[in-house]
Amino acid sequence: MFIATSADGYIATEDGGVDWLQEAGNQAADMTDNPDAGFSAFMASVDCMIMGRKCMEVISSMNLSAEQWPYGDIPIVVLSKTLPEPPANLRGKVEMFSGEIDQLIQELEERGLRHAYVDGGTTITAFLNKQLINEMIISVAPVLLGAGIPLFGRLDRRIDLSDAGATVLANGFVQVSYTVHYG
After folding, report:
1. Interval 31-70: pLDDT, tens
2. In terms of DSSP bridges, do strands 10-12 and 149-150 run parallel, antiparallel, or are they unpaired?
3. What is d(CA 108, CA 88) in angstroms, rounded to the nearest whole number?
4. N or C: which end of the chain has fewer CB within 10 A?
5. pTM over 0.90
6. How far is CA 163 from the centre of its chain?
7. Which residues pair with residue 136 across a beta bridge?
8. Are strands 135-141 and 174-182 parallel, antiparallel or unpaired?
9. For the CA atoms of the chain, what is the radius of gyration?
10. Cβ contact 125:3 at 8 Å
């Protein structure tokens, strides 16, 4: 997983907004050395992406041009029990999936896909509960939202993290990374 949160652990405002991510931190900082906080390198390490419907809807609302599209041409699967088709601006870029996670993993493995980028709070929590996430990269924005959509939901068990790493970015964000261990 590769995701950003507020310093108090929220990935979006209560209404799903993420505009605060563009406003947080030092906007005048020189990010030349790491303009995308390692996102391109991370994307080069994965062969597919799995996200929840709400995450997809946020991306859809951004109306990204082809030049702005950050995910390259990797397969992107959107989990949704309620939405059979993606929004018009994401058709051909994402595929919808309404089955169970175990079924999805089997289908992705049959396609030769083995290293997924998992995004979205509910989806991340579901994958953690199935012991399917092995690495976390969390960029913590220097802002407190006070309320919103938390990164993690209810976990079925304690999950230990090790191999902690931290990088302070020029804009004031702190990027932390962990290896995930299931007991």
Report:
1. 999 999 999 999 999 999 999 999 999 999 999 999 999 9
2. antiparallel
3. 24
4. C
5. yes
6. 20
7. 178
8. antiparallel
9. 16
10. no
